Amino acid sequence: MDNNEENESFRACYRKSYTVEEERTLVNYFLTYGGFSQRGGNSLWKRLEEKDLLPGRSWQSMKKRFKVITTTDPTRLQEELGTTVQQLENADKHPPGVKRF
Predict the structure, then answer these.
(1) pLDDT at position 73
(2) Which residues neighbour 74 within 8 Å (Cβ) at sequence distance 6 or greater?
(3) Could you give the CA distance from residue 78 to residue 65 in angstroms, rounded to a whole number?
(4) How far is CA 52 from CA 12, 39, 59, in A?
(5) Theoretical Cys-Cys bridge with 34: which of 44, 70, 89, 92, CB 3.0 to 4.6 Å?
(6) Residue 9 has what pLDDT?
(7) What percent of the chain is helix, strand and coil (3-state, nearest 5)?
(8) What is the pLDDT tens value at each position of the chain, 101 positions in all?
(9) Cα(9)–Cα(12) distance, rounded to whole angstroms?
């Protein structure tokens, strides 16, 4: 078994938990650039993986984690991550990171 196979095997057995900082990075992306309405598709998440938004995280993993963040515990979303689902939805309409002409 070579190093790549060993690394893949290790990752498959021992997945690293998401940190609060990683969750904030996901949330802040949507607050800055919008896209909340596209969160159910795959192309957005594939672009985020290509951009290396969260190094070492697959697009599938980010998509699943974001769904957990936004649907499971809205109180935690607000208290720990500093936003609400409503704010994420509003960012779609007027994302501050995108210039409007």
Answers:
(1) 84
(2) 84, 85
(3) 16
(4) 20, 17, 10
(5) 92
(6) 57
(7) 65, 0, 35
(8) 556 666 555 555 677 899 999 999 999 999 999 999 999 999 999 999 999 999 999 999 999 999 999 999 888 899 999 999 999 999 988 766 664 43
(9) 5
Q: Give the single-character DSSP code of 91.
A: H
56 torsion bin: left (phi>0), alpha (psi -120 to 50), beta (else): left
How many CA atoms are closer than 13 Å to the CA of 63, on its beta-carbon side?
16
- Residue 36 CA to residue 88 CA, distance in Å, equals 6
Q: Which two tokens stand for residue 24?
A: 């904030």
Give me the residue label for tokens 């963040």: 69
Q: Whole-prediction pTM value?
A: 0.79
| Burial class of residue 29 (count of CB atoms within 10 Å of its CB; 0-12, 13-18, 19+) | buried
